[in-house]
Amino acid sequence: MRVALTYNLKKKDPLKPADYFSECDSQETINSVISALKTKGHSVDAIDVEYPALFSYFRKNRVDMVFNIAEGKHGRFRESEVPAVLDYLNIPYTGSDTFSLALALNKALTKKILKAENIPTPAFQLFVKGDEPLAAGLKFPLIVKPNCEGSAKGINKTNVVDNEDDLFKKVRECINVYHQEALVEEFIEGKELTVGILENGKTRVLPILEIDFSNCEKSGEYFYSWKMKEFQGNRELGLVPEFYCPARLDKEIEAKVKDVALRTHRAMGCLDISRTDIRLDKFNVPYVLEINPLPGLDPKESNFPIMAYAAGMKYEDLIEAILMSASERKKA
User: Fold this and answer.
1) DSSP string of 82-120?
2) Tens of pLDDT, residues 294-323
3) Which CATH architecture describes the domain 2-94?
4) Model-level pTM?
């Protein structure tokens, strides 16, 4: 199969915020995906979507499938940009379609769908201007997040607040820096879990990954903040979470968590692959924080491959499974 890999290469720009390119992929990840596809016998062309030749490439080259890991360039619908181009050109691609990608990047809209589907998600309020009164039902502590960002962009330990003064300061900061609404939701104390869904002939829920932040006291980052994701494993900074896959859950709770993740995947219309982030509260209620239909595929550090390895898969088998799932949908 002739495959085009579409991606955004992670860069550094002193004029941009430190987390600006966090969603983009490293050269190591790109090389790993290319190597995995070639190992399975496919020919691969790699296309950086920042490069203006993206359109001319697809006009001049015919491919059987696009393996898409591109995050897009800008805006609240950026993850849909490359799939929208491919849809227009009638070129099949891996992963979710334009609608699901745009929807999942908008946390508030995602949560509205979850609530409509009776899927637990923390109570929330969306701040557009930053001077709206706090909804009476929301209980501290609260966490403030940019509404349309991934990779924990804009989130650090100061985003968890326990009074209105700190809340509104953080809300205004979020709106001013990221030029978008601020999502405020109740902070759920409890186990941090993430659940991968992989479709390859049949829908498969991978072993649950538990992220334990008990050893991160030095950093003060006790949840998946941007710094935790970006510098994970740095002992000097105290960013040393422990991973358990499968998660330390009894069978009944495990089944409940997997069911919630699968229902979220289907409610959002995801295809081929997704990763759902969940917090399990003290009453063992699994609260969905968000879903990522375009999860990272770094073979060493990304959560999704870790879950695939726990399921007995090799990295190249995971990449091939994603490709074959999209190929079967094309045939259908």
Assistant:
1) HHHHHHHHT--BSS--HHHHHHHH-HHHHHHHHHHTT--
2) 999 999 999 999 999 999 999 999 999 999
3) 3-Layer(aba) Sandwich (3.40)
4) 0.95
